[in-house]
Amino acid sequence: MLMLVRMAPRLPLIFLLMIHGVSSADWSVSYSHSHICALKDSSVIMSCTYTYPAGYQIMRVFWTKNTGKHNVLSGDPEYSQRLQYLGDKQQNCTIRLSHVTQKDEHMYYFSFTTSKSEIWIGRPGVSLTVTDLQVESPERVTEGDSVRLTCKSSCTLTDRATFIWYRNSQPLTERRDTNNQLLLQSVRREDAGRYSCALHGHTYISPAVHLSVTYAPTSISVSISPSGEIVEGDSVTLNCSSDSNPPAEISWFKGGTFVGSGRIYSISKISSDHSGEYKCKSINEHGEKYSDAVTLNIMYPPKSVSVSISPSGEIVEGDSVTLICSSDSNPPAEISWFKGGTFVGSGRIYSISKISSDHSGEYKCKSINKHGEKDSDAVTLNIKSVRCFSSVVVAAVAAVGVLFGGASGAFVMYICLTKRTNRRSAMNESAISDPNEDTYTALELKSTTSDLYDTLTVSETPKSDHHQMIT
Q1: How many domains does the chain have?
Q2: Are residues 149 and 119 in the same domain?
Q3: What is the pLDDT of residues 47-87, one digit of tens each?
Q4: Of 10, 82, 200, 265, which cross-links 238 as Cys (Cβ 3.0–4.6 Å)?
Q5: How far apart are CA 240 and CA 281, in angstroms?
Q6: How far apart are CA 312 and CA 256, in angstroms?
């Protein structure tokens, strides 16, 4: 419908038409679409045509929003840079409006003036609605499930619209089609991201929505900081890395014993007691997994250094004695042996075969590695002589020999030597078969007296009670 406005003089419309001999059918404005739904930031074409009676000359054409002369779009700063008139002053009144926004939602009319000062406003005009695109998607989906995303707008877009999908601002070229839905079958964790959609041929892209894919923990590992050698007293941090969604809870174990929680497990002033294998467990609502174990090998100087004697108990001349040095250290220590302040040997075990009184004294070991050294407490070797006869006993034997004859004295010595032999047999089961071991009988006593007594010499003086023993 057209509305005719005569500027002056004001006469009824019916009278004006009768004077000019024309009908309202000679005046018309036709719009291709009475309602247009445009995508935000797109360009809109409002197509129209108009007619007027012969004999009239078109002086001015323009578009307005709402009605009224003062709403001319070409004079509005908000439209002047975005509006382009594509028509003419004969029949075509089409315009293009670019970069539309929600502020552009109005009724729009084409208007023109003639040489006879009439202003014609074409009704009912064009209603413009501006819409955007929104992606509808579940916020979270479990790995392996299927998910459907929908690109929606507030009004119906053209049936031939081609949709383009984006993930993390990168187009999914394999998903360009006329369907406004994106179907992800057997979703993977790699499918997580920010999804948006657009119409092919338009610059506008919908706001992105985040799709979260949940899954059980994977790729569990432990790192040690600082790397390299760890020395007692250092501070050490174990870091558990875990790929999971939602984020996993972390537990720490030394061997099979729970020792802490959280992604980071810190040990300040580490000691040898902290040595061992550590691993972390990552767990969320979808499952759990352990890391491989890592070993903390703590280096420390020697400690708990001590010496033990084998065999324990009384040590008699001729015995074999072993001193053993025990030391706790990492790396293993080198062992040195000292008698008094004199170095006598190396190695964890210090052995003395056929010990003599010369070996008596205090012994200790020194344990040393690159981190430090420590001495053991000293142990004392007290060596007892194997000789049966002190000078007093020798004198007594000599006296018995004078009184009772040589056979009686020899019998006393036989008893002593037998005790010696028995003691050796108890300490060394192989003593009897040892060719170097002397075993004596009463019949051999006279011929072996000098060997048995070592340097012992007994002199008999029948007419006197005087006995002399030289050792």
Answers
A1: 5
A2: no
A3: 999 998 888 888 999 999 876 556 789 888 999 899 999 99
A4: 265
A5: 9
A6: 40
3-state SS, the chain, equals CEEEEECCCCCCHHHHHHHHCCCHHHCEEEECCCEEEEECCCCEEECEEEECCCCCCEEEEEEEECCCHHHEHHHCHHHHCCEEECCCCCCECCEEECCCCHHHCCEEEEEEEECCCEEEEECCCEEEEEECEEEECCCEEECCCCEEEEEEECCCCCCCCCEEEEECCEECHHHCECCCEEEECCCCHHHCEEEEEEECCCCCECCCEEEEEEEEEEEEEEEEECCCCEECCCCEEEEEEEEEECCCEEEEEECCEEEEECCEEEECCCCHHHCEEEEEEEEECCEEEECCCEEECEEEEEEEEEEEEECCCCEECCCCEEEEEEEEEECCCEEEEEECCEEEEECCEEEECCCCHHHCEEEEEEEEECCEEEECCCEEECEECCCCCCHHHHHHHHHHHHHHCHHHHHHHHHHHHHHHHHHHHHHCCCCCCCCCCCCCCHHHHHHHHHHHCCCCEECCCCCCCCCCEEC
> 0.85 exceeded by the pTM?
no
pLDDT of residue 24: 59
Residue finishing a domain among 190, 207, 224:
207
Residues 32 and 102 in one domain: yes
Find the mean pLDDT for residues 92-103: 94
Whole-angstrom Cα distance, residue 36 to residue 127?
Answer: 6
The verdict on 220 and 292 lying in the same domain is yes
Q: Are residues 104 and 41 part of one domain?
A: yes
**Claim to verify: residue 269 and residue 281 sit in the same structural domain:** yes
Q: How far apart are CA 183 and CA 171, in angstroms?
A: 15
Q: Domain residues for 11?
A: 2-130
Same domain for 98 and 62, yes or no, is: yes
254 and 268 both lie in a single domain: yes
Confidence of residue 116 (pLDDT cuts 50, 70, 90): confident
Do residue 222 and residue 260 come from a single domain? yes
Q: Of 247, 267, 296, which marks where a domain is finished?
A: 296
- pLDDT tens-digit readout, 127-153: 999 999 999 999 899 999 999 999 998
Which CATH number fits the domain that encloses residue 57? Answer: 2.60.40.10
Q: For 415-471, how does the pLDDT look when each residue is reduced to its tens digit (9 = 90+)?
A: 444 444 444 444 443 333 333 333 222 223 233 333 333 333 333 333 333 323 322
Closest by CA to 388, choosing from 343, 452, 323, 449, is 452
Q: Which residue has the tokens 């409002």?
A: 46
